[in-house]
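User: Fold this; tokens only.

Assistant: Input:
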Amino acid sequence: MVTATIHNPDRYMVDLRQILSQGRKRVGLLIGAGAPTAIRIDDKGRLKDDGNPLIPDVARLTDAVVKSLPAADQQVITKLKTRPDEEPNIEAILTRVRRLAQAIGGEKVHGLDAIGYNTLAEGICQNIGSIVRACLPNEQTPYSELISWIGGTHRDHPVEIFTPNYDLLIEEAFERARLPYFDGFTGAHLPFFDPVSVSSDKLPARWSRLWKIHGSLGWDVHGDSIIRTGSRAATKLIYPDHLKYDEVTRQPYSALFERLRQFLTTPDTLLICTGFSFFDAHICAVLDETLAANTHTAIFAFQYRNLENESQAIKLALNRPNLSVYARDGAVIFGVPGQWQPGQPPTEDWESIRQTFWQGATSKDPAQFLLGDFAKLARFFSLTQASKMTPLLPPEPADTGASGPVSSPPAGGDHAKS
């Protein structure tokens, strides 16, 4: 994108650090499918920088799910494309399959009747579940750093997390940290979804809110209630086409989308997006509507790629100046696109703080803004109380005359000083 406008990342990150460290503003997070890809693991499930993503992104998830289906089902999915070159993601495929199951009855389309398409939908959900049921590694992860930030500040308002992801990684991080959260379910034996509680704010601010707006592993139907089973094997209620389902199964999705709308129409609210591509039409419609209705709401979208590759986010940001897009090489702020260029450090210790969100140019890579990477953003959150970061010294060579090798410093890159 060619433009003469320059945005100074220091200016905006000073303000963001202040917001995140004080705990007075109403803050929410929209965590998309790109977030779990920031966790890389080896074949034994241990963290490894050059390993495979803990959970693949939507494109790779789609490819893996479709390939795991029987050949006949793969052929049906190919025939459901609206054009030969279309590459629908797994959610679009699942929606088309479920709509056909509801519409055709005993008639056959591409060799399957309604029963056949219901069976195909169940197979798709089971394969999704087998991939996204991965557990959070026991080591420190971006999720644990994010939860550390949530629990480390006294708050006037609870942090609200909205996510279309089906996995249980956020739940695991909360529970390992022994921090309370509310997800719309109540009870002990078979916790049931309570839409009345979702719409209210009666719980203390230290209870974070977790809203799984596309459903989740572990949700199931029990009589006339939606329950949380605690089992990763339950995959029935992940991304249903909620506008077409009966009253019981529609209930969580309508209540949770209304909660997103309610959150964004509350004055002086900030929603921070990470790992979200802005390709989800349902979510983007709510963002667009509420940004237009409430100019006192702000959304900061931290995007992984360069501006030219974030067309969906930019399209919305150009129309809604209270949505800012922070990409790798530039930003759209107050509706104005521009390239990044740091300015003079605002404080004596800012150079070390700048390293948490900015990487200078090297012989291999241009200078770049780092917070589009969920792992970098979570680290930035966790260090907002720090006033100075001191780089770790590299480990000294082992002394052959010593009783043992000198230990390496812990992973994490920087020490924080309050």
